[in-house]
């Protein structure tokens, strides 16, 4: 996958760090729009299309977590990563619960960020390509449109995030099979560390609520092994 013309929204209030990061990302082939605070970043997002967002957590006028929530409301398909100087476990878990595709603690090497962004965009491109020809799936009494990221039951429609959509697709493709936790994490999160595992637990809880109207569908956890997405 080429990064040429891939559009990044960079929200970073540290002028020196933001300037260097912008230059490095542009040298790596990205088109970068740099916002110096959360409010400016939100206004910028509303007025343009972005392939991915890189959000500092601690910013004036609007913090990165609040900004991410507003971005999700505007376009839940846009992937985003958090940057933070804090190593608090609670912050990382909060970011992953919001649906962040990654969470990077400063200081870090710029080429590490570029590699992670490349991997996220590569996965996003594959998801789009795979759903172009056949994007609607019948799951029990539900219909899932993986292109529009809509899960419908009768006249009710639930919009889902891109990662929720990836998880639904993976579970549906392996329905009625016992799945190991690490296999799900590597396929959807591309990482099987502790924080990704906590994030997955949150997403599984959401999916149970989304599918609660059809008693023929269940997500059963098997202690110490993984889970099974049952569709009868």
What does this structure look like?
With 232 residues, this protein is an alpha/beta fold. It has helices at 15-27, 38-46, 64-74, 89-97, 110-131, 162-173, 181-189, 194-210; strands spanning 7-11, 31-35, 52-56, 80-84, 102-105, 136-139, 142-145, 150-153, 156-159, 178-180, 217-222, 226-231. The protein contains 8 helices and 12 strands. A 5-stranded parallel beta sheet has the order 2-1-3-4-5, sandwiched between helices. Strand 6 (136-139) and strand 7 (142-145) form a beta hairpin. Helix 2 (38-46) packs parallel to helix 3.
Chain-wise SSE layout:
Blueprint (H helix, E strand, L loop, with lengths): L6 E5 L3 H13 L3 E5 L2 H9 L5 E5 L7 H11 L5 E5 L4 H9 L4 E4 L4 H22 L4 E4 L2 E4 L4 E4 L2 E4 L2 H12 L4 E3 H9 L4 H17 L6 E6 L3 E6 L1
Parallel strand pairs: 1-2, 1-3, 3-4, 4-5
Antiparallel strand pairs: 6-7, 7-8, 8-9, 10-12, 11-12
Helix pairs in contact: 2-3, 4-8, 6-7
Shape: globular
By DSSP (H or I, 4+ residues per run), the number of helices equals 8
Distance from N terminus to C terminus (CA atoms, Å) equals 39 Å
What's the order of the H and E elements?
A: EHEHEHEHEHEEEEHEHHEE
Structural class: alpha/beta
Concise account of the structure shown:
The chain is 44% helix and 24% strand.
Which structural traits does this protein have?
232 residues; alpha/beta; 5-stranded parallel beta sheet; 4-stranded antiparallel beta sheet; 12 strands; globular
């Amino acid at each position: 996958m080429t990064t040429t013309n891939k559009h990044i929204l960079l929200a970073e209030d540290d002028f020196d760090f933001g300037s260097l990061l912008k230059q490095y990302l542009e040298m790596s082939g990205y088109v970068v729009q740099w916002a110096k605070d959360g409010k400016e970043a939100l206004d910028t997002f509303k007025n343009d299309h972005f392939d991915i967002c890189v959000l500092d957590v601690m910013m004036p006028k609007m913090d990165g977590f609040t900004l991410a929530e507003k971005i999700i409301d505007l376009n839940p398909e846009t992937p985003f990563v958090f940057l933070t100087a804090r190593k608090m476990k609670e912050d990382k878990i909060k970011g992953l619960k919001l649906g962040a595709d990654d969470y990077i603690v400063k200081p870090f090497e710029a080429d590490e960020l570029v590699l992670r962004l490349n991997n996220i965009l590569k996965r996003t491109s594959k998801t789009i390509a795979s759903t172009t020809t056949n994007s609607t799936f019948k799951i029990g009494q539900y219909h899932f449109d993986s292109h529009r990221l809509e899960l419908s039951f009768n006249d009710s429609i639930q919009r889902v995030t891109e990662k929720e959509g990836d998880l639904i697709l993976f579970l549906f493709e392996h329905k009625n099979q016992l799945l190991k936790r690490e296999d799900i994490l590597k396929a959807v999160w591309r990482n099987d560390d502790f924080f990704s595992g906590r994030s997955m637990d949150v997403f599984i809880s959401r999916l149970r609520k989304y599918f609660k109207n059809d008693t023929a569908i269940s997500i059963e956890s098997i202690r110490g092994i993984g889970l099974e997405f049952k569709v009868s």
